[in-house]
Write a structure and sequence with these properties.
Radius of gyration of chain A: 21 Å
Radius of gyration of chain B: 30 Å
Strand content of chain A: under 5%
Number of domains of chain B: 3
Number of domains of chain A: 1
Structural class of chain A: mainly alpha
Structural class of chain B: alpha+beta
CATH class of chain A: Mainly Alpha
Oligomer: heterodimer
Distance between the termini of chain B: 69 Å
CATH architecture of chain A: Up-down Bundle
């Protein structure tokens, strides 16, 4: 009884949460963005981004382990209350903008691909409503839901490959370096904040049973996310060929339209189902994180009451963007901006920690 | 409002003590049972030692075994020889004269009434302020018979009956262990009834036992007739579709729950055992799960999972596909459906609702109908509603198939609460499908999973040990071979772990 009722999440649940954060990227507009810069070698970009984001993550993980405190507690203790609140505000802005822009983009994809006659606000409210419902039941519960559904989700996602195998041709990914290694490295680094949530996830450290669970959970989920995205980029390029793949909006959804299973021609409805479930969980994590950071900034004890206003604000703000092109442009700006912040921040924190630690050691 | 005064009035009256005055004592009992209006109270003057020792024997008709009173109470009393010392009469009678299994000395009217109601006979003696209550209980009960709901092909063929004592004996026969504890508690303020809480000490979690007892103690109501009503008092969520307790009529299933660290509640007049806490898996597993071979049981499990999904989703998915996602269907099938739909005047939603409700009505009628005219239901259902509705162009034939397979699948789910949950959820999904197609259905699926994952039954998460994931696992979705299962309950801290290994006696092919 004591074991199960402590409200802490474990390795598996955390892995599942991270899987729903990252694996879903292969289904949204991330591939479009990456293919624009990476051309036929776009599949290398997630790996580079991962490598670039891994270093600050590990640095921050080191500080977290050293102090045995979550990101939020660390920021407040190392930077003081005022700067701490400001940092929380920046984190909130990052996560909230990501929530707003991405959820609007998802809604646009639902609208364009499956429900062209349904008004966008209608779909949007339903999606965020479902996410709010899930987030409102707490992190432990998001974790459990994610863990139950994640094997099925991965299975259905990967099995798509077998349905489209006849159009597959691996030669299309050559030349292997695409636009050139320098471009890949540069763009990979610039866009590394597609994995920026890893840094922000460290704020959830106090809710995880132990450090090892946290480290393994995040890294496993993250790696599955990177491998899946890279793998599906290879698939997209090998199936649609370059440069045609550049002109295809939502490659995953197009792929599901091509998929056949015997006489059943269109499998996209099945993938619509998977994608719907995944997005609801995906945005519930975003909502939860946004509410968490906002509450820390405002120094509130409970943050569940913030979920509903944030969800409402998200729908209102998300509806401002007129179409997906604006949405995509916004997303690129967000990724580029937040990359700088999220990559540099752990090093700053580390430096301050060293300084303070040094002072203490001298004093001692 | 009226509850409090009546119960307290009852209490003050019943709290009277017996005195030396024989007349007063017997009047107390007569008054308590409204004698002579109430003819159930039987009395008999008794005397021993040539009339020097006299008294009255009381019992309630229909609660006692009269031969026992004659042979084990009255006979020894009459044959009494040798006058006991003054003040030791009761002592002697209780210890060395009366021959029944349990004897109690009683000083309060309240206890006397309680014992009489529970089938004891009461002896009041002249010049004594202590009454003697001897156990002679024998209530009418039916014999142990075969289960009617939880049938199995292979396995024990007996079910609980309405007598708590018999039910306890059925369980004791299966768990011959001194650690099987049976605690009795009383519920109901005005008409108290006994609840028996059974668990295995050291296996069931101490906190859990305490919590269950507190819950039962905390019940404030006039009367609880039986377990089904008690269930509604102690369940975690009254307004939720998801059950938090489980009823079984099979002693073997109840035993396997006991061994797994669950707690059992028994009551008189209830041919069931109530089990807490439960998880989704305890509802999903059937009694036969442990009796079949590994291959067979897992085949059954696959069928059950499919049946659950079919029972919940088929109508809504048909609705979504035929309204929103027609491109999913192969063209030939699409044309076939379109052709049959063409002549049906009502929208597909109403077609489904019409037939689904008809099916539910048939099902309910099947339960309520007197068994003599039962077979009529089949004829009415199959012929008139199925075939005729199609011929009259009220519904299309494919809807009949959809509803039939849905209904059939719902019969696979044995547990009544889970069954209801699935049947009601189905309608919920039908409306959502009509509203938003797959998008709506699967947003609702995500929310449903989130809801169920957050539930707890007596602090045990509903989907555990799968989510949150705990060792050891007994095999929740698929069962492990029996020799790989360990008995340790996943939600307990108790350790009576026994490492089970593959029996290597003789040769195994695998």
């Amino acid at each position: 009884m004591i074991r199960i009722n402590n409200g802490l999440i474990r390795k598996r649940e955390l892995t599942a949460i991270v899987i729903f954060l990252y694996v879903i990227q292969l289904m949204n507009t991330t591939p479009d963005t990456l293919i624009k810069f990476g051309k036929n070698a776009a599949w290398v970009l997630p790996i580079i981004s991962f490598a670039v984001m891994l270093i600050p993550f590990l640095v921050l993980l080191y500080i977290v382990k050293k102090h045995d405190a979550g990101l939020v507690e660390l920021v407040f203790s190392l930077l003081g209350k005022r700067i701490g609140s400001f940092v929380m505000f920046v984190f909130f802005l990052i996560i909230f903008s990501a929530l707003m822009i991405n959820s609007r983009n998802y809604t646009d994809v639902f609208n364009t691909m499956f429900y062209p006659k349904t008004p966008v606000p209608y779909l949007y409210v339903m999606l965020i409503g479902a996410s709010f419902y899930i987030a409102n039941r707490g992190l432990e519960n998001i974790g459990r839901t994610a863990w139950i559904l994640c094997p099925l989700y991965l299975f259905v996602t990967y099995i798509l490959i077998f349905f489209i195998l006849e159009d597959f041709s691996l030669e299309r990914i050559y030349p292997i370096a695409g636009p050139g290694l320098d471009v890949l490295l540069k763009k990979g680094a610039t866009y590394s904040s597609i994995y920026g949530e890893s840094i922000l996830l460290l704020a959830l450290y106090p809710f995880v049973r132990k450090f090892k669970d946290f480290r393994i959970g995040v890294l496993y989920g993250w790696m599955i996310g990177v491998v899946s995205l890279a793998f599906f980029m290879v698939i997209y390029v090998s199936i649609f060929d370059f440069p045609a793949v550049q002109d295809i909006a939502y490659p995953f959804q197009q792929l599901t339209r091509m998929a056949t299973l015997g006489t059943i021609g269109h499998l996209e409805s099945i993938y619509l189902a998977t994608w719907t479930v995944a997005s609801a969980i995906h945005f519930s994590i975003y909502l939860y994180l946004a509410a968490f950071f906002l509450s820390k900034m405002l120094k509130l004890k409970e943050f569940e009451p913030l979920l509903l206003p944030i969800a409402g604000l998200c729908v209102l703000a998300g509806l401002i963007s007129p179409n997906i092109f604006v949405g995509n442009a916004l997303r690129e700006t967000l990724i580029q901006t937040s990359t700088g912040i999220l990559v540099l921040f752990p090093f700053i924190l580390w430096g301050i920690d060293r300084l303070k630690g040094g002072k203490k050691a001298n004093a001692g | 409002m009226s509850k409090e005064p009546s119960s307290s009035r009852n209490q003050t009256k019943n709290d009277s003590l017996f005195t030396d005055d024989f007349q007063h004592n017997s009047t107390l009992i007569y008054e308590a049972f409204s004698y002579p209006t109430n003819q159930s109270l039987k009395t008999r003057q008794i005397s021993a030692l040539q009339g020097t020792m006299r008294g009255i024997l009381f019992f309630l008709e229909g609660t006692v075994e009269e031969t026992t009173i004659e042979t084990h109470v009255m006979k020894p009393f009459y044959e009494l020889s040798g006058k006991p010392e003054d003040g030791k009469v009761v002592d002697m009678l209780a210890n060395s004269v009366l021959l029944t299994t349990a004897i109690r000395e009683i000083v309060r009217l309240q206890d006397a009434v309680h014992d009489l109601l529970n089938g004891n006979c009461l002896i009041l003696l002249e010049n004594e302020k202590i009454a003697i209550s001897a156990n002679t209980a024998s209530f009418e009960k039916r014999v142990v018979s075969e289960p009617t709901v939880e049938n199995v092909v292979r396995g024990p063929k007996e079910a609980f009956i309405e007598s708590m004592a018999v039910n306890q004996s059925l369980l004791r026969r299966q768990v011959k262990d001194s650690r099987l504890i049976c605690e009795n508690m009383t519920v109901g303020d005005v008409f108290p009834n006994e609840v028996s809480i059974m668990y295995i000490k050291g296996v069931a979690d101490e906190k859990l036992i305490k919590e269950v007892k507190q819950k039962v103690e905390g019940i404030q109501t006039d009367v609880i007739q039986n377990l089904s009503i008690l269930e509604q008092f102690i369940e975690s969520r009254t307004y939720s579709l998801v059950p938090s307790t489980l009823m079984t009529e099979r002693p073997d299933r109840a035993t396997s729950f006991l061994l797994g660290g669950h707690i059992l509640l028994l009551m008189e007049n209830s041919p069931y055992a109530l089990i807490v806490p439960i998880t989704f898996w305890s509802l999903f597993h059937t009694a036969e799960d442990q009796y079949l071979r590994w291959t067979n049981v897992n085949f059954n499990r696959i069928i059950s999972i499919l049946a659950i999904f079919i029972a919940i989703f088929t109508p809504s998915i048909y609705l979504a596909v035929s309204t929103f996602h027609v491109e999913m269907l192969p063209p030939d099938l699409l044309f076939a459906i379109a052709a049959t739909r063409e002549i049906v005047p009502i929208p597909v939603l109403w077609e489904i609702i019409l037939l689904e409700f008809t099916f539910e009505i048939l099902r309910e009628a099947g339960i309520r109908i007197p068994s003599v005219i039962g077979p009529t239901i089949g004829i009415v259902g199959a012929l008139i509603l199925g075939q005729a509705a199609v011929q009259a162009n009220l519904v299309s034939p494919i809807i009949v198939i959809v509803v039939a397979i849905t209904g059939l699948s719902s019969f696979v789910i044995q547990d009544l609460s889970l069954n209801f949950m699935i049947r009601i959820l189905r309608f919920f999904f039908i409306f959502i499908a009509n509203f938003m197609g797959f998008f709506g259905i699967f947003l609702a699926v995500a929310c449903t999973f989130a809801y169920m994952a957050s539930l707890k039954s007596f602090n045990v998460p509903f989907f555990s040990p799968l989510a949150p994931y705990f060792q050891p696992q007994k095999g929740v979705v698929f069962r492990k071979p029996v020799w790989k299962q360990s008995l340790v309950p996943f939600f307990s801290n108790s350790r009576y772990k026994k490492k089970v290994s593959n029996p290597k006696v003789g040769s195994r092919d695998d």
